[in-house]
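In response to reviewer comment 3 from the previous cycle, which asked for concrete evidence that the modeling workflow produces usable outputs, we include below a single protein chain processed end to end. The sequence was submitted unchanged, and the resulting structure tokens are shown without manual editing.
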Amino acid sequence: LGTRDWSRPNGPLTSGEVLEPLPPKGPADRRVLVLGGSVAFGTGAASREACWDRRLEALLNPPGATRKVRVVNRARPSYNTAQAFLSLAFEGLEDAPDAVVMLDGFNDLAVPLLLGGRPGEPYYFQALRSQTEGEGSWRKLGRELSWHSRLLQLVRALASPRPSAPEALDGEDRTETRRLAGRNLLRMGELLKARGIPGLYVAEPVVFSKTMSPQEAARVAVQPWAPLLKSEYPPHAAALLSLARSGGGRTLDATGMFKGVAETRFMDDVHLNDAGQEALAKRVAAALSPLLLKR
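The workflow returned the following structure tokens.
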């Protein structure tokens, strides 16, 4: 996986896409690494310039600044905390970050709650395979394993059709989902702490925590999973925040950052429009700036 080019349009990565490498890092330069899923990626923004990470970079480089802060976004749509951890370990640390922002956790809940998957499973096996696929025979083996896993998923889906509306998690799956996601956050924290890199875990905002605009309400009304997310996500996010803090990590609870805001900020249940992207950038910049001043 390459580093996302700053000038390319916002959108999902395509298979085999080659992206430009990072420019050399100067002595006075600072880098912020962003990890997570589609919210961290910037899904929902109307343009690349409107993405929250691009806005964050602008906020961290005020006029007259003597050093350049570059935001490196390695988030990928649908990534959960396990995939973000792999991204950090195998590619993110090579970016020589001075701080890491982890904006994820929702996808860990969405897979067992909305898709009927097992706790800890990724949205797509293809995404996980791309993290570990090698060259030559390993590449061929990876393709074969991916094909067989997709076939197995299809057979299981046909043999055990799921109801149209998702069901609430049982206590065991709920506990296991939080345990696995929390373990991934703690492992990321340990990896960063060993290298003296500050990390910031941000719990994603959701539309259910605000006064919905007519547009937001209409979009949520057609989503059969909305009632479940409304009840399941807040305690899930609170548990991950608590686990991240227990490991000495810095956290930012952004779940309710739009509470009392009646204007439209979401494109759906979690993805932000341009105004929402701007607000998220400001919130993260305020929490991140003190960490960068110490570098």
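Residues 1-18, 134-138, 154-158, 160-164 have pLDDT under 50 and may be disordered. We consider this sufficient to address the reviewer's concern, and the full set will be provided in the supplementary archive.
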